[in-house]
Predict the 3D structure of the following.
Amino acid sequence: MTSTASLCLDAPNGTAAYSGASGSIPPHGAANIGAAADAKPRRIGLVVDHPLRDLDGLCLLAQLLCERGHEVVLMPFYTQHLDLPNLELDLIVLNYVRPANRALVEAASARGIALAVLDTEGGLLPETGPTSGSGIAAYLRESGLDTRLSVYLFWGERLRDAIVKKTALAPSRAVVSGAPRFDLASTRYKRGSVRNNCVLVNTNFPIVNPAQTGRRRIDDKALRSAGFTQDEVEELAKSVRTVMDRMIVAVGRLAEARPSRSFVIRPHPFERCEPYRKAFSARPNVAVVREGSAMSALLQSDCMLHVNCTTAVEASLCGIPAISMDFINDPQLQAMASLPTKVSHNARDLAHALALIDRSPTLAATSNAKDISPFFGPLDARAAERAAEALSSAELVAPGAQAASYRLTRKGLNLIAGRVLGSRCVEKVRQSLKPSRALKAFDAADVRPRLEHFASVHETNAASVETVRTASGAPTMALRLRPVRKQPAECRLTEAQRLR
C-alpha cells in the first residue's frame, strides 16, 4: 500500500512522532482533566482481562499510578467478583462495559466504589451491532452508566466521539488516552530482541475455537452476552470457521514450500492451541507457541501473517511487516475490521504471499498514521501516562444504587466465598474442573519483573507487590501494589554503614 503519513516510534526520548498532511495530533483527544500533583492518594483496582495480552500494559499503568502515590490492585478477570469485598477500593477500572459484567458494576456501585473504563479491545470495532460504537453507546445510555462513570479512557477519538455524541457522558470525562500496551513498542520500553528468520502467524478465531467453553464448538455465550442474536452468532461463526480452515491449509502449503523457514503459530489468547498442533504435527518447521506477549513475539520475527488481526497495527508500530492473506479472507469479516488490511502488505494469492515472505527481512512495515490514530490514539508512547493522570485527577462520581432490574445473582454465595474462603481457594477448585481457566491467572512472580523494568526506565523504585488476603487471612488471586518512595541520595546507607 502507499502511505500518505508515517509512524515512527523510535523518535528521541522514546516518543512516537506522527506526521501527515493535517499536522500533529494533540496529546489529548478530550478535555485535559488536570494535573494530579495535589490529588489525594487513591486505592485503584485494575481488571486484568487476559495476562498474555494485557498484563504488560496494566503493569506499566500500575507502576505509574504508584509513582503518583496511589495504591493499585491487579484483579484477575475470573475472580474479580470474589475479590471485590476484600479490596476497599475508591475506584475500579473496568476492562469494558457490557451486559456480561453488569453484576460486577452493580456490586462495585453497592459498595460505593467509583467506576472507570479502559477498554482492553477499544481500537477496531464493527461498524454495526452491539459491540460497535453505536451499540456500546446504546448500552451505556439504557443502563444509566453514561452518567455514573467517573472517567472513560478511550483508545482513539473515533469511539470517543461516537459515545459523547450519543450518550450523556460529559466530554470532560471522555479522555483519549490510547492503549498502554502499545507504549511498549517504543524504544523507551523495548527490551533487547533478535530476529530469528521466523514467520509469525497470528490467528484470530476465538469465536469457533474458544479456549474457555469446554465442549461447546462456538463461543455463543460471550457473543450473546454482548448483544448478538443466536442467528447472528451462527452466521458469523460459519464465516469465521471457513476462514480458519483456509488459513490452516494455506500456512501448511507455505511451510511446505519454505522448509528452511520457521513458522510460529501464535493463537489468539482466547483460542485453543490443540487444533493447530494437530494440523501441523507433521511439519517440523511449524511450532505453536502461546508464551509471552504479542509484542515480544513480533520483535523476534521477520514478518507476520494474518487475516483481520489487529496485531497488524502492533506490527506496524514495531516496524515489522504484516502480510494480510487476502486470498483466503471473507468479505463480510474484512468489512467488520478493515484497518488490519490497510496497514499490511496484501497477498493476492499463495505465490504472492511466498514472495512477500522471501522479501520480509528487507520489506518495510506499512503504516498509515492517518488511518490508525483515530482508532488507536496519539501513538506517542505516553498512553499509560495519560491514563494515570486521568485516573489520578478525575472527580469521582458517586455511583449510587441501581434499580431492582440490576439485582445480583448468587450475591450471597460470592460474598461468602470471597470473604471467608478467599478467591485463590475457590479458583483452585475451578481450575481443577476446567484447566483452561489457568490461562487468565497470574501471580507476583509475573508482575515484579515487569514493575522493575518500568521503574528502571523511569529511574525510580518499583512498587511493592503482595497478595491480598481476606480478613481471616485466606489468600486471594488479587495483588496489591504499593508505592516505594525513592530515598534521597544522602539518606541511602549500605548495610555495612548502618552497622558501624
About this structure: The domain at 6-185+381-482 is CATH 3.40.50.2300 (Rossmann fold).
